[in-house]
């Protein structure tokens, strides 16, 4: 993962409840949900950790997946990690998780 982006979806309204990538949350609501400020969300956007989808009016919209990523970055920042370093750590953690998952799949195929 280099960047987490919200994707435009053509789903039914009911499907959106289960879609982790559906950009359902405004900046204010997203910040409230993870206990931070809109400025923090803008900062991790500038650090290219997440890229929210923009509404037709230009407002940022965040998905649940993006909020989990932002919450992890916030956790690191709260522990004293500079924001750019926190974003890099989150990216590396995600890449490691992907690599471990792929490794496990390859092991299962060779059994």
UniProtKB/TrEMBL annotation:
GO terms for biological process: regulation of DNA-templated transcription. Residues 24-92 form the HTH merR-type domain. It holds the Pfam family MerR_1. PROSITE patterns: HTH_MERR_2. GO terms for molecular function: DNA binding. InterPro entries: DNA-bd_dom_put_sf (IPR009061), MerR-type_HTH_dom (IPR000551). Residues 1-21 are annotated as: Disordered. This is MerR family transcriptional regulator. It comes from Streptomyces agglomeratus. The lineage of its organism: Bacteria, Bacillati, Actinomycetota, Actinomycetes, Kitasatosporales.
């Amino acid at each position: 993962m280099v960047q987490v982006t919200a994707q435009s979806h053509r789903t039914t309204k009911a499907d959106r409840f289960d879609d982790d990538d559906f950009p359902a949350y405004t900046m204010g609501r997203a910040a409230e949900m993870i206990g931070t400020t809109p400025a923090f969300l803008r900062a991790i956007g500038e650090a290219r950790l997440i890229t929210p989808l923009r509404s037709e009016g230009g407002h940022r919209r965040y998905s649940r997946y993006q909020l989990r990523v932002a919450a992890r970055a916030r956790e690191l920042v709260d522990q004293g990690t500079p924001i750019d370093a926190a974003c890099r750590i989150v990216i590396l953690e995600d890449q490691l998780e992907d690599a471990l998952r792929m490794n496990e799949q390859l092991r299962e195929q060779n059994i």
